[in-house]
Amino acid sequence: MLHLAVFASGRGSNLESIAHAISRGNLDAEIVLVLSNNSTSGALDFAREHGIPAVHLSSKTNPDPEDFVSRMKSELKNRGVDFIALAGYMKKVPPDVVNIYANRITNIHPALLPAFGGKGMYGLNVHKAVLESGARITGVTVHIVTNDYDVGPIVAQECIPVWDGDTPESLASRVLELEHRLYPEALQLFAQDRITVNGLRTIHQPPA
């Protein structure tokens, strides 16, 4: 079973999809911490409503960078976190934390990496770039987090067509539906110890 920390900055819809997958028995995990850099995020509200420890951690709560990192590491250790799922977290995870949880931090990206990734590629920015490129397909990528944006080993991807007449908003809505299904499925692979990382590749083991 994974002891999950979910990091989120916004409304927390992927957090909700993870929680629902757990409650349905489709994901062998327990969310032991929700952490957000946004004190008014929907993710924190959801966590508090469901009795999940919720922590606001940002430059406002901990202005000193070293203190910020120390506080984050303490929260993770004290909650017994062994896996971190980024779910719309709009800050870069400190290198110290990435190193401690090497190959145990995932992110979900609203495009088919390595296309449309990197710094500044989040939210509607991604979907605008997809449409402006003329791409006919897009999708979702779950990948392992490293110290560089969106370049970690890919765990899972799924694609959908780009339709004539799509707007960034309509594309975002359809991609988000895919995120909600794919992310819990990818996390379950880790819960079942079916992912092995070999350099920039992930190897999927068959079910036991």
Descriptive key words:
2 domains, two-stranded antiparallel ribbon, alpha/beta, globular, seven-stranded mixed β-sheet, 208 residues, Rossmann fold
Task: Report what the structure shows.
This protein is of the alpha/beta class. The protein has two domains: 1-101, Formyl transferase, N-terminal domain (Rossmann fold); 107-208, Formyl transferase, N-terminal domain (Rossmann fold). The chain has helices spanning 13-23, 42-49, 65-78, 95-100, 124-133, 168-191, and strands at residues 2-7, 29-36, 54-56, 83-86, 105-109, 137-144, 154-161, 195-198, 201-204. The strands form two sheets. It has a seven-stranded mixed β-sheet, covered by helices on one side. Strands 8-9 form a two-stranded antiparallel ribbon. Helix 5 packs across helix 6. The mean pLDDT is 94.
Outline:
This protein has 208 residues and is an alpha/beta fold. Helix content is 35%, strand content 24%.
- Nearest-integer average pLDDT: 94
Q: Describe the sheet with the most strands.
A: 7 strands, mixed
Shape: globular
Helical content band: 25-40%
Q: How many separate domains make up the residues? A: 2
CATH topology of the largest domain: Rossmann fold
Q: What structural class should be given to the helix and strand makeup?
A: alpha/beta
**How many individual β-strands?**
9
Task: Give the count of helical stretches.
Answer: 6
Order of helices and strands: EHEHEHEHEHEEHEE
Class of the largest domain, according to the CATH hierarchy? Alpha Beta
Strand order of the largest sheet: 3-2-1-4-5-6-7
* Beta-strand proportion: 15-25%
What distance lies between the first and last C-alpha atoms, to the nearest angstrom?
Answer: 15 Å
The CATH superfamily name of the largest domain is Formyl transferase, N-terminal domain
Q: Rg to the nearest angstrom? A: 17 Å
Low-confidence stretches: none
> Based on the structure given, which CATH architecture of the largest domain is correct?
3-Layer(aba) Sandwich
